[in-house]
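Example for tutorial group B:
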């Protein structure tokens, strides 16, 4: 990315950050340190009581103020940067995943025992890749 692009991106990000209560960062570049997307100056512009969750901390972090394994507060903004965050919430993540799978299956099963797929349903339409030998999903369009 050019420096001009990076500058424009940072300006837009700052404008959005000023109005957010929580920001979750996940940006990674394979084989390199995580890009720093949130500068100290950006954090200083955020609302009092806001929270940043830096999920990229194991590769250096996306927030310049993140400290691995420590929750810090800067300018009344909490910055959470726990390595391996999924292991900290495994039970809750499993419950959420199971609930999502259950709800998805409810879209596919009528009366609790018969397969009944409504291809007009928005969720089904966006997750079904093919049916009766036809490619249905736009991911296959060129």
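The residue assignment follows.
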């Amino acid at each position: 990315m050019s420096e001009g692009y990076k500058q424009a991106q940072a300006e837009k990000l700052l404008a959005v950050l000023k109005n957010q209560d929580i920001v979750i960062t996940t940006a990674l570049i394979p084989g390199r340190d995580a890009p720093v997307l949130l500068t100290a100056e950006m954090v200083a512009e955020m609302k009092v009581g806001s929270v940043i969750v830096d999920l990229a901390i194991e590769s250096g972090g996306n927030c310049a103020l993140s400290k691995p394994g420590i929750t810090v507060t800067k300018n009344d903004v909490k910055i959470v940067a726990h390595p391996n965050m999924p292991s900290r919430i495994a039970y809750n993540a499993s419950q959420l995943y199971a609930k999502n799978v259950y709800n998805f299956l409810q879209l596919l099963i009528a009366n609790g025992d018969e397969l009944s797929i409504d291809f007009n349903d928005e969720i089904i339409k966006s997750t079904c890749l093919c049916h009766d030998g036809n490619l249905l999903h736009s991911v296959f369009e060129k």
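The chain has two domains: 3-84, 89-140. Compare this with the pattern of hydrophobic and polar residues in the output above.
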